[in-house]
Specification:
251 residues, two-stranded antiparallel ribbon, 9 helices, single chain, mainly alpha
Amino acid sequence: MIPYLRRLTGKERNEKADRHLARFLTFIAGAVNAGGFLAVRQYTSHMSGIVSSMADSLALGDVGLVLSGFGALFSFVAGAACSAVLVNWGRRQQLQSEYALPLVLEAALLVCFGLLGGHLARHEGLFVPLTVMLLCFIMGLQNAIITKLSEARIRTTHITGLVTDLGIELGKLSYWNTSRSAPRHLFVRADRPKLRLLASLIMLFFVGGVVGALGFKHIGFIATLFLAAILLVLAAAPIVDDLAVHARLRR
């Protein structure tokens, strides 16, 4: 189990580890996004919708909604930027946990949301409730993690892109190559492993959404503590490795 977790979030990566981590994070993203909607009445990973809403609100003269959209957008961008800072700092320090650090931060923020969500909802920052800002920050943080480690090949909160890629691969799968003598570069072949990955990510986002929505419906904000626990387990092995190295160096 420990070697698996070390490969999952450690510095040394391979495509299999990226796929497995993406599945875990997609489940969590679905849970936070759908469950969070019941808590804050807003989807917090859907930046396309938020930017479109800002444009509509500006056209209709509703400056308040434009500003609230800006607050959510800024929080998402700030989360992604924070993830990049943590990963690059960990890389400069030659840490095994360069990708685990943002996961630990995400877990800590989910714990804060779970324990303080009811209180945070009564306060605003950048024209939106602090709960909305916090969830948008978390979604930006998480999406940037998998984007950086997979070199932008995988997203965990951007389902529109996943569905688009799924449609492309299904189109390639159904394409009839009429001439076997055609040049190799013109022969259409679906990437079946990618097709399976995309289908699994979409399914896990949906399953995570159901779990998150049920959790928020029945136990409220503290449902995020379960998600935080998953993240801490995922990040534990490389964090412990770095702490052990640090302890040896101090002796």
